[in-house]
Amino acid sequence: xxxxxxxxxxxxxxxxxxxxxxxxxxxxxxxxxxxxxxxxxxxxxxxxxxxxxxxxxxxxxxxxxxxxxxxxxxxxxxxxxxxxxxxxxxxxxxxxxxxxxxxxxxxxxxxxxxxxxxxxxxxxxxxxxxxxxxxxxxxxxxxxxxxxx
Length: 149
What we know:
Strand content: 5-15%
Number of helices: 5
Mean pLDDT: 93
Order of helices and strands: HEHEEHEHH
Radius of gyration: 16 Å
Largest sheet: 4 strands, mixed
Shape: globular
Low-confidence stretches: none
Structural class: alpha+beta
CATH architecture of the domain at 15-118: Alpha-Beta Complex
CATH topology of the domain at 15-118: Spore Coat Polysaccharide Biosynthesis Protein SpsA, Chain A
CATH superfamily of the domain at 15-118: Spore Coat Polysaccharide Biosynthesis Protein SpsA, Chain A
């Protein structure tokens, strides 16, 4: 592992608490501003990450909405853990992105919205991603339906 990489254990009961702990640790280590990305957005490209960095430079928050109502990326210029203070029942629903935007609006934060992406949560997502030309071939190979004997 590279010397400048630090692994942290997840802490918290729900995704909001885990995100709060992760960004708090990152900012405490001097890593901010930062982007937090999901691991289930296989078409997230370097160009989209560059757009997120640019949006984050001009806004308090950059948000990459997922097509299912969640988000695949959140960028923070400063430690805004209040954005993760969603009711635990909201996490992993189609209301996450809208609820996060409402929290940011309520606190007067400016928000740069990125282009939506499909994340990979369901077999239907996998089938839809297989038609996306941005899907990397190694991931496409993994998502191909297997023939049954």
